Amino acid sequence: MSWWADNDDLxxxxxxxxxxxxxxxxxxxxxxxxxxxxxxxxxxxxxxxxGVDRGRFSVLIGSEGKTRTAIATRARxxxxxxxxxxxxxRLVGDTSGDEGTLxxxxxxxxxxxxxxxxxxxxxxxxxxxVANADQMLIVIAAANPExxxxxxxxxxVAAYDAKIRPLICVTKTDLADPAAxxxxxxxxxxxxxxxxxxxxxxxxxxxxLVGHETVFVGHSGVGKSTxxxxxxxxxxxxxxxxxxxxxRGRHTSSSTVRLRLDxxxxxxWVIDTPGVRSFGLGHVNPESIVRAFTDLAAIALECPRxxxxxxxxxxxxxxxxxxxxxxxxxxxxxLDSLHRLLETFSARAGTERPGR
Length: 356
Known about the structure:
Elements: E1 45-53, E2 56-63, E3 66-74, E4 88-93, E5 103-108, E6 114-117, E7 127-131, E8 135-141, H1 149-161, E9 165-171, H2 179-182, E10 192-194, H3 202-209, E11 213-218, H4 224-231, E12 257-263, E13 266-272, H5 287-292, H6 294-300, H7 317-323, H8 331-346
Parallel strand pairs: 3-5, 8-9, 8-11, 9-10, 11-13
Antiparallel strand pairs: 1-2, 1-4, 2-3, 4-5, 6-7, 12-13
């Protein structure tokens, strides 16, 4: 028997349904109506990201002298926008910083700098390391592991591309004399710190970090975490050892962390990053490479229009200057580094040869 046969009072076979008689299929993405109107968050607080751990962000709230830390998550309205250590953000929600509380990051301020790297030179997908740093301290060991000129060149390219001032610190000088290695960078005018046996110039290094946001980078096992622990008591960054068979350092720092540096002259911020054995520049515009070699870039202005500055480039003023000895003893080494990087970039699919 049909349904309406038992409902003789209905005028039509199917009766008259009101809205309450109709089953509404729930929205699979939630029943809340969608809107493009976003809250203004006029009461949001300013904060700085200290570190990132599995979708949770450690943030510093407040100005110097009146600060507190809190844990925050990303607001849905940010979508897939990356949030990294050093970012200046705005918070809402429970910003007390009490145990068990969770604030929300609702916006990210414009960044002054952005240090990036890629997996290799053929990978154009960038991996953001840190935001808003204005200095990079490149930590190198004089031995164990052996210093790598090419890796330092890559750090310098990334630093100059991001408009970050580079510094160099050489550790483990009790194992080898770094003088020959450092001659490769004499033409760049980079401030360099060299540790003596049983002594590291911590005060001198700290003076150059005051008032700055300095990101520390270096090959695994060079002593970067040891240096940070000495500069920032209580940092407790894990210290690794170099494998005696392979000569390679073991990765110890697994995440990027921003640490406060206090000195008699003032404060600064130290950003520790995981040690790396390679530093891809797939995200960098090839024209930035020549500008990174500041001693060569000045002479490159004399090159013919469209000069690639590569090894096979005719009438290259840089190559001529090296041949004539105008760049000193290190000129040939610097030019060789430039050629290697330019050749790597020219081999990338779809990459044009850089000009002046």
